[in-house]
User: Which sequence fits this backbone?
């Protein structure tokens, strides 16, 4: 979904990284993106194929996967912005020299921006952003545990729970 949003707001190069082939394929189906399995490919090589010489202006790390995190700071331009949104399964080492000397701005996510994000998303949806392909499953709310299991196995995009039957 982030790739579709980035493309919608005008990003020139949108590269999605993951280590799950199913999610990478979904990303390519949802938006015009380059999907990279960072357990097999290097972001620097992808940048070369895209004829990028300096790096990405913005990086959104959402997987928490060490393979993606390891390459992140090398692939961002000097003065770039990084949003850390994924939750690693265990603590990860960071080469703070790269962060400092590249003058990166790093941001996590917190609830105070939730309503601002909702308003921006509504505006994008109203201006033509189509995220229907991101929804891979629709389940009755009573099957929420099944939804979590599908997500845990990495076999989904977004899962929508239907609360109508829960009344």
Assistant:
């Amino acid at each position: 979904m982030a790739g579709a949003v980035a493309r919608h707001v005008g990003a020139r190069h949108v590269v999605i990284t993951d280590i799950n082939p199913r999610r990478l394929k979904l990303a390519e189906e949802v938006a015009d993106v380059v999907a990279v399995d960072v357990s097999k490919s290097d972001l620097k090589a992808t940048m070369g194929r895209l004829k990028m010489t300096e790096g990405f202006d913005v990086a959104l790390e959402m997987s928490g996967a060490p393979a993606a995190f390891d390459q992140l700071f090398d692939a961002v331009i000097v003065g770039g912005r990084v949003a850390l949104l994924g939750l690693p399964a265990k603590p990860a080492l960071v080469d703070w020299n790269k962060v400092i000397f590249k003058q990166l701005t790093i941001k996590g996510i917190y609830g105070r921006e939730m309503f601002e994000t909702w308003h921006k998303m509504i505006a994008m949806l109203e201006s033509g952003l189509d995220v229907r392909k991101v929804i891979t499953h629709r389940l009755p709310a009573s099957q929420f545990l099944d939804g979590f299991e599908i997500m845990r196995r990495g076999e989904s995009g977004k899962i929508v729970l239907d609360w109508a039957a829960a009344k």
Observations:
- The beta strands are 15-18, 34-37, 56-61, 76-84, 105-107, 135-140, 158-162.
- The first helix runs from residue 2 to 8.
